UniProtKB/TrEMBL annotation:
This is Luciferase-like monooxygenase. GO terms for cellular component: cytosol. It comes from the Bacteria. It comes from Sphingobacterium paludis. It holds the Pfam family Bac_luciferase. SUPFAM superfamilies: Bacterial luciferase-like (SSF51679). Residues 19-297 form the Luciferase-like domain. GO terms for molecular function: oxidoreductase activity, acting on paired donors, with incorporation or reduction of molecular oxygen. InterPro entries: Bact_Lucif_Oxidored (IPR050766), CmoO-like (IPR019949), Luciferase-like_dom (IPR011251), Luciferase-like_sf (IPR036661). To bacterial alkanal monooxygenase alpha and beta chains.
Amino acid sequence: MNKIKLSALDLATVCKGQTVKEAIERSVEGAQYIEELGYERVWFAEHHNMEHIASSATSVLIGHVAEKTKHIRIGSGGIMLPNHAPLVIAEQFGTLASLYPGRIDLGLGRAPGTDQVTAMALRRNNLNTSFYFKDDVLALQQYFENDNPHEKVRAFPGEGQHIPLYILGSSTDSAHLAAELGLPYAFAAHFAPAMFAQAAEIYRKTFKPSRHLDKPYFIACVNIVAAETTVEADFLATSLFNMFAGILTNHRRPLSPPTEKVIYDGIPEIEKAVHNMTACTFTGDADVIAAQIPAFVNDYQIDEVMTTNYIFDAGKRLDSFRIISEALHRA
């Protein structure tokens, strides 16, 4: 397990009673803390029209967190490329890479990161942009790698920057694309585990080496809630499960304190839906985490584990990051 990289995904989630500024400060604090623990990277996800998520201006947030940290990699998990012109993203991330060389990642997703009405607002009523995702990824690569001074459209800053691209996904389509392009692949098992096993197998078996990557590199994003005892971890995890219940029932709320029972207790339909959505969730003390995660990694040939952290209490949130790190890097 010492060779497995450990990272974090953050949405700058707004907690109950908290402002957006405080949510961003919490993200900075978390990034600084996991940097000290030796985490490889922290990524921020692009979402829109969601009152309790403060990562919509993802590039801006990445720059802010990069400025407040020293060496941990900072990136997008991801930029929803169909929402943007590839040239704009090349310029934004070229700027970030110029300011923070060797520290910026660019994870790319096809989904809108929002509802269809908001997607129409983002994409100027052109919802067909998602069908050109592969072309947009290739265009983005061209902007970064262009060595033709006579090209009519070039990305400044951006050109000549060696910014690693990652394909993000929650289905088998993304696995095929990442394998075809020879790029690292990150799967969103933290909320869409249904196709996780199939996507992992497709990516490994069909991967084509490229100038970017000579062998598959697979990141699994999962929910891990760790605490000093398993009983406490299970209690803290109710905040996560209640949040997902709100998403499924379209009653979105800020991240709230844990509850003695989940809010959907006694409602089997919601219980089943939440269970299916959070199947890749691990809760427990250090011993439980040290047993469960290595087995999960071995089963799916995972190169890097990326954890979410939907723990309400700020101190317990940091404790969880520490316990996970200690559990996975035992001698």
